[in-house]
Automatic annotation (TrEMBL):
It holds the Pfam family BCCT. Belongs to the BCCT transporter (TC 2.A.15) family. InterPro entries: BCCT_transptr (IPR000060). GO terms for molecular function: transmembrane transporter activity. This is Choline/carnitine/betaine transporter. The lineage of its organism: Bacteria, Bacillati, Bacillota, Erysipelotrichia, Erysipelotrichales. It comes from Coprobacillus cateniformis. GO terms for cellular component: plasma membrane. It is found in: Cell membrane. The chain crosses the membrane at residues 16-35, 55-74, 94-115, 142-164, 189-212, 232-251, 263-286, 321-339, 351-374, 410-439, 451-470. Keywords: Cell membrane, Membrane, Transmembrane, Transmembrane helix, Transport. It is a multi-pass membrane protein.
C-alpha cells in the first residue's frame, strides 16, 4: 500500500508537458530529417549563419565576461561558500569528481578534434595573416577548448550547486535558477518557456555531438575489419550499442556513472601516453605544446575579442563564435551535473578544481594528439593537409595519422573503445539531468523513476540517428 502510494505521488510530480512535448517534436523532426534531408540541411545552415554573423559580438562578450566572473567569484569571499552544509565534506574524491565532470562536459568530440583540428586552421586564410602554421595552428585548438568553455560550465555549476545543496530547492530546472531575476514569473508561462528551450537546446546539442564524431568510429571499424557495409548502418549500430551502455550505467545510479567515468579517464590517458612516448615525436610535442600554450596565454584577450569586422576571412564567425554557441548549448546539462556532484566542495574548489582537471586534461589532449601529426607535417614525414584537401574527410585523415603509429590496429581499437566510453559517460549524465527536468519537484536525494530515465536515454539517441540522413552535422 505504501509503495503504491509512493509511486502514485511520484507520477503526480511528473511534468508531463516538459516530458511529452519534446518527445513529440523530436519525433516530427526525425521524420523531416529522414524524408526531407536536403531541405532540412539548408534550413539548419541558414539558421547557423544568421546567429553567427548577426549576434556574434554578443557571444564574444558573454564568453569573456563569464570567464572573468568565474575568476572573481573564486577569488572573492564567495569562494568560501560550501555547496552543502557548513562543515560537509566532498561526496567524491578529487579523481572521481574530476572524472565525472570532465567526461560529462566533453564527449568523444575531444578525441576527434584533438587529432585533426589544427588541419582546419592550417588551411584557413586567417592563419596566413597571423604567421606560420607552426606558430598558430596549434594555438587555436587550445583556446577554443579551454578557459572560456570551462568558464561557462563552472560559473553555472556553482550557481546550480548553490541552488541544490544550499538553498535545497526541489525544482531541478533552469527556470528555478532564474528565480532571483524572474520572481513570481518563474512558476508561470515564462518559466515554462525557459525550461522547454533548455530541453530543446539539450537535445539539439547532444544530437550534433553524437552525429559529428560517430562517422570516425565507423571508419575505424571499416579499417579494422575491411567491411563493405553501408556506413549509416554501422554508425546506427554504434549509436545503439553506446545507448545500451549509458542506459545500463545510468540505471545503476551514480555508482555506475562514476565507474564508467573513471574507466574512460584511464583509457583516455593510456591513449595519450602511448602517442607521446611511442609515436617518435616526444620532443616536438612537448616543445611545440609549451610554445602554443604560452602564445595562447599571451594573446588571450586579443583572441577572445577578435571580430573581423570587415569579414576578410570570417574566422571568428566560423570558429570562435560557433564554439561559444556550442558550449552554451551544452551548458543546459553539464553544469547541472557538475553542480550536483560538487556537494561538499567550496565554490573556490569547484571553480579552480574544474579548471585544473577539466582545462588541464583538455589542453594535454590537444597538445599530444594534435602536435604529433603536426610534427609529421612540418618535418615532411607526411602531408595530412593534402590528404584532407583531396578527400575532404577528416575521418580519413585521422585514420592516416594513426597508421603512422606503431601497432596501429591496437591504437585504433583503443581509440574506438575510448570514444564509446566518452559518449556513454557524457550521455548518462545528460540523460540523468533530462530526467530531473521531467519532474515538478525532486527532493535532494531523490532520483527520477527508472522508466523516465529509460525514456530519456532512448530519446537522446533518436535525433542523432535522424541527423545521419540529413548529413547536417
Amino acid at each position: 500500500m505504501n509503495m503504491n502510494l509512493l509511486n502514485s505521488k511520484k507520477e503526480k510530480q511528473i511534468d508531463w508537458m516538459i516530458t511529452l512535448l519534446p518527445l513529440i517534436i523530436i519525433v516530427i523532426l526525425c521524420v523531416l530529417f529522414i524524408f526531407k534531408p536536403t531541405q532540412s540541411n539548408e534550413i539548419l545552415s541558414q539558421v547557423r549563419y544568421f546567429l553567427g554573423d548577426t549576434f556574434g559580438i554578443y557571444y564574444l562578450i558573454i564568453g569573456l565576461g563569464v570567464f572573468l566572473i568565474s575568476i572573481f567569484i573564486a577569488s572573492s569571499k564567495y569562494g568560501n561558500i560550501v555547496l552543502g552544509n557548513k562543515n560537509e565534506k566532498p561526496k567524491y574524491s578529487f579523481f572521481a569528481w574530476g572524472s565525472m565532470m570532465f567526461t560529462a562536459g566533453l564527449a568523444a568530440d575531444i578525441l576527434f578534434y584533438s587529432f585533426s583540428e589544427w588541419i582546419l586552421y592550417a588551411t584557413d586564410p586567417h592563419i596566413a595573416e597571423l604567421g606560420s602554421i607552426q606558430d598558430w595552428s596549434s594555438v587555436y585548438p587550445i583556446f577554443h577548448w579551454s578557459l572560456i568553455p570551462w568558464g561557462f560550465y563552472l560559473v553555472l555549476a556553482v550557481a546550480f550547486g548553490f541552488m541544490l545543496h544550499v538553498r535545497k530547492k526541489e525544482r531541478q530546472k533552469y527556470s528555478e535558477a532564474c528565480r532571483p531575476i524572474l520572481g513570481k514569473h518563474t512558476d508561470g508561462l515564462l518559466g515554462r518557456l525557459i525550461d522547454l528551450l533548455a530541453v530543446f537546446a539539450l537535445l539539439a546539442g547532444t544530437a550534433t555531438t553524437f552525429s559529428l564524431a560517430t562517422p570516425l568510429m565507423t571508419n575505424i571499424i571499416n579499417e579494422l575489419f575491411h567491411l563493405q557495409l553501408n556506413p549509416i548502418i554501422i554508425t546506427i549500430s554504434i549509436l545503439i550499442v553506446t545507448c545500451f551502455i549509458y542506459t545500463y550505467s545510468l540505471l545503476h545510479g551514480f555508482k555506475g556513472i562514476s565507474f564508467l567515468a573513471k574507466s574512460c579517464i584511464y583509457l583516455f590517458f593510456a591513449l595519450l601516453a602511448y602517442v607521446l612516448f611511442f609515436g617518435g615525436e616526444t620532443q616536438y610535442i612537448i616543445e611545440t605544446g609549451f610554445s602554443a600554450l604560452g602564445r595562447m596565454i599571451q594573446n588571450f584577450f586579443g583572441l577572445a575579442t577578435y571580430t573581423d569586422a570587415q569579414r576578410t576571412t570570417s574566422f571568428p564567425q566560423n570558429w570562435t563564435i560557433f564554439y561559444w554557441a556550442y558550449w552554451m548549448v551544452w551548458c543546459v546539462a553539464a553544469p547541472f551535473f557538475i553542480g550536483n556532484i560538487s556537494k561538499g566542495r567550496t565554490v573556490r574548489q569547484t571553480i579552480f578544481g574544474g579548471y585544473v582537471f577539466g582545462v588541464g586534461s583538455t589542453i594535454i589532449s590537444f597538445i599530444i594528439l594534435g602536435n604529433y601529426s603536426l610534427g609529421l607535417q612540418v618535418n615532411g614525414v607526411a602531408d595530412f593537409i593534402s590528404i584532407y584537401q583531396q578527400t575532404g574527410s577528416l575521418y580519413q585523415v585521422i585514420i592516416e595519422i594513426i597508421r603512422t603509429l606503431p601497432l596501429a590496429p591496437l591504437v585504433l581499437i583503443l581509440l574506438l573503445v575510448t570514444m564509446i566510453t566518452f559518449y556513454a559517460t557524457s550521455f548518462d549524465s545528460i540523460a540523468l539531468i533530462a530526467s530531473c527536468y521531467s519532474y515538478h519537484k525532486l527532493e535532494e536525494n531523490e532520483s527520477p523513476h527508472k522508466f523516465i530515465q529509460l525514456m530519456w536515454c532512448i530519446l537522446l539517441i533518436l535525433l542523432p540517428i535522424a541527423l545521419l540522413f540529413s548529413d547536417s552535422s
